Amino acid sequence: MCGVALRYLYSMANLMKMGNIGIKKVNSDKSKKTKIIAYALPLCVILLACLVMFVPGFGEEKAEISKDENVSAKDVYAGVDSADGANSAPDSSFGGSGNDTPVTVNTEPGLVPESAAADKSYFDDAAFVGDSISLMLSYYNASAKALGNAQFFTAGSLSAANALWEVSDKSVHPSYNGTKMLVEDCIKNSGVKKVYIMLGMNDIGLYSLDDSIENYKELVKRIKEKSPSVIIIVESMTPIASTSNRLGDKFNNTRIREYNSKLLEMCREMGWYFVDVGSVMYDESGYLRKDFCSDLETMGMHFTNAGCEQWVSYLMTHTV
C-alpha cells in the first residue's frame, strides 16, 4: 500500500508542478486546482493508513507517569503479574547497595532444622558466649579453625545469673581484647552479627529452672539493647557423663532435659533460635558419650576434640 502511495505522490508532484505553472500563466484557470485537490484527498487517506498500519505506537495514547512524589516503584508496578502470578515490583536487590546483614534462611523462631552444611566462613561474624564448656570449643577452634574466625566470649563458671553482675576484680566475666567486660559490651565492641549462647551448667544447680530462664532473658535483653540487630542463637545444654562427681538431685541429665525444653519454649516466645547440640552428645544410656568427655573421672562434662568435632558438625548443618 505504501508503495502505491509513493508512486501516487510522485505523479501528484508532477501534476502540482504543472498546475502551478498553469496557474501562473492563466490565473483564471481554476479547473487545474480542482483536479489537484481531488487527487490530494485520496493521497492523504492512503498516507494516514500507512502510518497507522506500519509505524509502531502511532496513534496510541501513552500512559501518563505520575509526578506524585509519594508514588513508589512498588506502586507503579502494582498489578503487573510476575511469572508465578503474584504481583510484584521489579527486583531492585541485585546489584544494589542493600544491607550487608546476612539474610536469615530459617525465618521461624524456635528449633532450627537441619540444613545443608555451611562453610566455616559462615561463623566469621559470629560470637560464642559460654562457660568452661564453650571454653573447650574455643581451644579446639584455635587449633583447627573449624569455625573460621568466630570470636569467643567465655569464662569458667560463667552463668546467666553472674553475667548480670557488675564487673569487678572478683567477678566472672569474659574479656574482649584483654579487657574484662560485660557480655553485652563484648558483643557490641566486637561488631558480630550472630551470637551463640550456651549457659546453664552453673545455673540449674543453684537456681530454679524458671529463675534460670528469667536470668537468661535478662542477659539477652541487655545484649539486644546494645546490639539490636544481632541474631540470637541459643544452644542447648549438653549432657554430663555417668561418672560425673556433680551428679545430684538438682544436677542431672533429667533436669538438663527439662531446662532445654524451657530454653526452646523461651526461644519460641522471644523470637530467638534454638540449636539442640546436646541431642547428638548422648550415649545409649542417656549420658554424655565417653569418647566425647575429657574429664570422665571428675566433673564429667567437658569435651574432647572428638566431642568438639561433633559439636561443630551439628552447628554447620543447623544454620539460620
Provide structural commentary.
The chain is an alpha/beta fold and 320 residues long. The radius of gyration is 39 Å and the shape is globular. The protein starts with a helix and ends with a helix.
Which helices and strands appear, and what pairs or packs with what?
Blueprint: H1 2-25, H2 31-54, H3 73-76, E1 110-111, E2 126-130, H4 132-144, E3 151-154, E4 175-176, E5 179-180, H5 183-190, E6 194-198, H6 209-226, E7 231-235, H7 253-270, E8 273-275, H8 305-316
Parallel strand pairs: 1-8, 2-3, 2-6, 6-7, 7-8
Antiparallel strand pairs: 4-5
Q: Could you write a compact summary of the structure shown?
A:
38% of the residues lie in helices and 9% in strands. It contains eight helices and eight strands; from the N terminus they run αααββαβββαβαβαβα. Strand 2, helix 4 and strand 3 form a beta-alpha-beta unit.
Largest β sheet strand count, sense and barrel closure: 6 strands, parallel
Radius of gyration: 39 Å
Number of distinct beta strands: 8
* Measured distance between first and last alpha carbons: 67 Å
CATH architecture verdict of the largest domain: 3-Layer(aba) Sandwich
Adjacency order of strands in the biggest sheet: 1-8-7-6-2-3
In CATH, the topology of the largest domain is named: Rossmann fold
- Secondary-structure content class: alpha/beta
**Helical percent range?**
25-40%
Strand and helix order:
HHHEEHEEEHEHEHEH
Shape, principal axes of CA atoms: globular
The CATH superfamily of the largest domain bears the name SGNH hydrolase
Runs with pLDDT <50, length 5+? Answer: 1-6, 8-37, 50-105
What is the overall pLDDT average? 78
- Quickly count the domains: 2
Q: Give the number of helices.
A: 8
- Strand percentage: 5-15%
CATH uppermost class of the largest domain: Alpha Beta
